[in-house]
Write a structure and sequence with these properties.
alpha+beta; Helix Hairpins; 2 domains; 5-stranded mixed β-sheet; binds FE2/S2 (inorganic) cluster
Length: 241
Amino acid sequence: MESPYDVLGIDADADEDAVVRAYRRRVKEAHPDHGGSLAEFERVRRAYEHIAAGRDPSTFEASASDGEPGTSAARNGTVRDDASAADRSAAEEPEEEDEDALGPTVEYLDYEAVEAHGWELTDEDLFEKAAAADLGVDTHGLLVVDERETLLEAAERYGFSWPYACRGGACANCAVAVVEGEVEMPVSTILTDEMKAQGIRLSCIGEPVTDDLKVVFNIEKLPGLAELRLPAEQFNARADD
Ligand code: FES
């Protein structure tokens, strides 16, 4: 049976830092543009969560790559490259680590799951609870943001359909709550100072400026933000003109 440590390419006695570093590296390798797939991404995420939760390695099941490709069809969107998930050999030598080359790593969580489970954005253990809930990769997981890429662009590169409308800082459809880390927006936006102070950012123009972030997306229906929403159809219609 495959060990979660094999999935991350580390020894079974690796310490916590080594596990996190390996996780970040493997997430990048699992990206469809780098020869991986969302199925592999799910497998890596499961391995990390199995280790992080202190579970018995012998009980690890990489079920997403074994029989559930596409468990995670992105909400309102498509998922790339599920069927072509080629499991990497556990014996394959990992690429040489280059921490500097790895972009910011974003752990994301869909607000719908927060609501459905009765959690709060302010819960200190929000992402730990999400990890324990074994949510699909469209709802909870990791993505790596490339240089000069916005958060929304990165999510779309992974095949996710996060909400948006104007893509220019003029609405709140693409709003996310940054729970940990920082996302900078280059221009003044429709968001109030109070919203910004609460960690609300616009994913369409926001670029991560810290190595690790935790972000809740799909928050556009929250009070205050709902009034700033624009009908996405209006922009789709323009795009079709
Ligand atoms: S989509 Fe309108 S501000 Fe991002």
